Amino acid sequence: PPLFHVPLSQIMHFEPFSVPSLVRDVIKILVTPIPSHNDDKYCLCYSEGIFRHSGNAQEINDLISSYDNDLSVSELLSNSGVHELCSLLKQFCRQLPEPVIPVDTQTFLRKIIKEENNDKDIDIMNNLLILKKIQEELVRVQ
Fold it and tell me: Which of 50, 58, 57 is nearest to 83 (CA)?
């Protein structure tokens, strides 16, 4: 199924993990140490301006097409530059028809941040954080 211009809720029906494959794939490449670099702990995510500079438009379009047509993208991704990877990620987020954080959740979070909350709201947030930690642990041990 296509990934671009599709609601996140619809994408997640086809994803085996709690994060879309494109996001997982790009982040994995960005945080993986580069063995040929002088510092064995250097990752692409340390590059300056990775989300500020645009990548090659044709390469980004090829990556989008590959994802939307369910083609193998691992080789394409691993041969892509840091700016193409980050541009792909930005393009994915921009083309979501709905916000990543739903509007009603944004309103709830703003309310908590403004300290216009009560004990019930705080309990709800604590329970959400606990559930998130449990979910992360379950994914880790799979």
Answer: 50
